[in-house]
Design brief:
The protein has nine helices and nine strands. By secondary structure, the protein is of the alpha/beta class. The radius of gyration is 21 Å and the shape is elongated. Its cofactor is Mg(2+).
Length: 193
């Protein structure tokens, strides 16, 4: 019901995944600066539309109780950035449902392997994930978002009958394609027009 009334988001953020990213060291914990960097970057990229950050109620309460984070949490709350999942529930289901329902981007490095086995139509889910999941990294404290590709990296046929096959080239960060064309197909279509 809440999502029906608040359906104007272009990105959903897995808050725990981002806050706990690379925090497995002695002084590590939940990184609010990392989460804040993602929220601000998405806000800028979208033309000043806030993303929706989903956090479990235990995590959000601990941020609220920390005086150094309280102002930011209040600001996010006022702007409609936060959604708190209830006690006893898995926050993964909330951010996954919101991203699918709103047909928007999902910012998480979670590969959702455990959810694929629980869903019917896992092929559809994998295609959806490829087109909607935004991966991220922090290199020396700087956020880098890896947006989904503008097209699927699968064999495709063009309107003129050419086949486009994605090929893997070692050391190449961009997609390389092999284009296969049958001249007689292209000529016969041109003659028909």
């Amino acid at each position: 019901d809440w999502l029906e009334k608040n359906a104007n988001y272009e990105a959903i953020v897995d808050g725990a995944n981002i806050g706990l990213y690379q925090q497995n060291f002695t002084e590590g914990g939940f990184s609010v600066p990392q989460l804040d960097a993602v929220v601000k970057k998405l806000y800028e990229r979208s033309g000043n539309k806030w993303p929706l950050v989903i956090l479990h109620n235990k995590r959000l309460r601990s941020l609220w109780e920390n005086p150094s984070h309280r102002n930011l949490v209040e600001e996010w709350n006022e702007k409609g950035v936060l959604y708190m999942t209830p006690h006893g529930s898995n926050d993964d289901w909330y951010w996954l449902y919101a991203a699918v329902k709103l047909r928007c981007l999902l910012v998480t490095n979670d590969e959702m392997r455990d959810h694929i086995f629980e869903l019917l139509g896992s092929n559809f889910f994998l295609k959806w994930k490829e087109r909607h999941q935004v991966h991220y990294t922090f290199v020396k404290g700087n956020l880098k978002l890896q947006m989904p590709p503008p097209y699927s990296s699968v064999i495709q046929e063009s309107e003129k009958g050419s086949w486009h096959v994605p090929i893997l080239v070692k050391g190449n960060s961009s997609q390389t394609w092999l284009c296969i064309t049958r001249p007689n197909v292209c000529e016969s279509r041109d003659e028909a027009q």
